[in-house]
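Cross-check.
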Amino acid sequence: MMYEGTNISVNLDADGIAELCFSASGSVNKFDRETLEQFDAATQAISANGAVKGVLVYSDKPAFIVGADITEFTDMFAMPEAEVLAWVKASTDIFDRFEDLHVPTIAAVTGFALGGGCEMALACDLRIADTTARLGLPEVKLGIMPGFGGTVRLPRIVGADNALTWMTTGVDRKAEKALHEGAVDAVVAPEHLITSAKTMLLSAITGKLDWQKRRAAKLAPLNLGQNEAIMGFNTAKGMVFAKAGKHYPAPHMMVNTVEAASGLGRSEAMALENKGFVQLTKTDAAKAQIGIFLADQMVKAKGKKQAKSATKDVSQNAVLGAGIMGGGIAYQGAVKGIPTIMKDIAAAALDLGLSTAAGILESGMKRGRVNAKKMASTLNNITPTLDYSAIQHADLVIEAVVENPKVKGIVLAETEQHVADDAIITSNTSTISIDLLADSLQKPERFCGMHFFNPVHKMPLVEIIRGAKTTEETIAAVVATTLRMGKTPIVVNDCPGFFVNRVLFPYFAGFSKLVLDGADFVTVDKIMEKEFGWPMGPAFLLDVVGIDTADHAAGVMADGFPERMQKVTNDPVTLMYQANRLGQKNGVGFYDHGKDKRGRPSKTPAPVAIDMIAQHAATKTEFSHEEVIARLMIPMANESIRCLEEGIIASPAEADMALLFGTGFPPFRGGIFRYIDTMGLANFVELADKYAHLGAIYQVTDGVREMAAAGKSYFTA
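Predicted model, tokenized:
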């Protein structure tokens, strides 16, 4: 054995090939600090051994290397800029030393080679992949850019245009596509990977393959003409701005770095990468996006742990209510292989539910994501019925009828009479208290909320609501089923609106108050979309949700929290509802909705809505961007804090993921608690106090005031 560490070993075979194996003790290989140190030690051991004729890099796991250890990033990136720069330069020096070995090198890639794993392969002279391989540089999703030489090596291997597409989108490549683009030199079956890699390496050792020429190209400036460079980089900048906008600095930094480094050799180009990488680590976007990744990992791990404790196996679902929502829920179970009974009291509703599922599948077929076999199997998994007897064997029932507590109560009581004693019953209510609905059942311990978001097939979140009498066995089984349905479960405790809607309606109330104080709703939408980063401004979102749905839910919230959420007098939402302006569902709301020339949904500010609001609002007033954002986001932040303090949501991380997955909260802000932390609790309290006169939704809790005074934050407290 030439070198042996806990994560890397090097063995010299009879042909003089040094077999450098990544073999971490965990389930995957990743570049943490310890592995980087061992990689350098292994490289030096190879360099010092005159018997080595070539180097084969491979993994003893199903995946090559999944990237850097992101759990180390938070502490590392908090170091002073000079220290972060020293660390990243030392790291890239390790990869450079490996690239400079006096013998040819090859990477044998299986499974994922992402981030640092992909950069490891790029540092080799040759790359061979098996058919399971996927290569990519996804750092942009963390708000940073490749830091182990990816911005330098990839453009010199696949060309600047291809490289920038890889890096600015973060999308990985299957083996065949990577071969087509020149990132790998061959693709073979998994069982032939190592022998084929050695054969290719021996060809380089014997001079049949010119590995020196390949290496020289990676060390030299990019081979670009002046006009080609100008056109290519300007096009890339335009495409990145159109997609990423101004809130995501990482893709812009990548383009600028590759452009600036295009005329430089490796060492000068690497210095630019080091500098750009460090600058990105200090941005709020990077902190937020890394925070999202870590929160997502925590939520997934918690869900898997809860699912493992499930004692009931769910082999058949039943959905009660076959409208658009019910059809979407039925589709989601069916497409994941769960046979689903879809029941309604009207044949027309069943037709709508089936057409909803079929429409989703047809759209997938047009995009090439669904084949005829998948469509047939999914639809065959849905059994429509008008008869309660059809649900007698269901293991889990999802009630998705109209959002009315009396109607839901009747349906739930009837359901309990037709299912097995151990069947789980859930309600897809969006606002109604689970404990209130549980009063309709004889066995409330097997009942909980299962709140899907519309459109079901696109929205990742399912809020699972624990009632006062819900057992943990019930929660575990519902979490397990939610995961099987391909959704992210977040368990919350019961209250009107639960978590997502409870914090969303103060945001809407802040919007209504602002509009009545003279703000133009179109301007407010633009500010919240362009400046804050929401996918939709509040007026447009209300139109999409449905004005009738929003007005009804506001009434539920007012009953649940009368001290804070009483309906706003002359609320523009209520005005729209009274005028039967229901939003997208009937084509008129704050906006008039239609289709453009290409048949895509369009919207124009509705003069009728503007005139209607003007009759009840103050004189039109211009508000600064900062004030618009503050008046909408402070109420959401305050209510989120109350939910955390009351135990409705278990952690800031789960709250952030719930809003990210349930409402489209801007990822570059990291979620509501990351947003508060980024602002600083003392600054948040000061800002909220400025608007405290506007009402209870602007008034901070004693708890956050105490945290601010103590200098604490939500992710370090």
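DSSP finds 30 helices and 20 strands in the chain. The first strand starts at residue 3 and ends at 4. Passed to J.P. for a second look.
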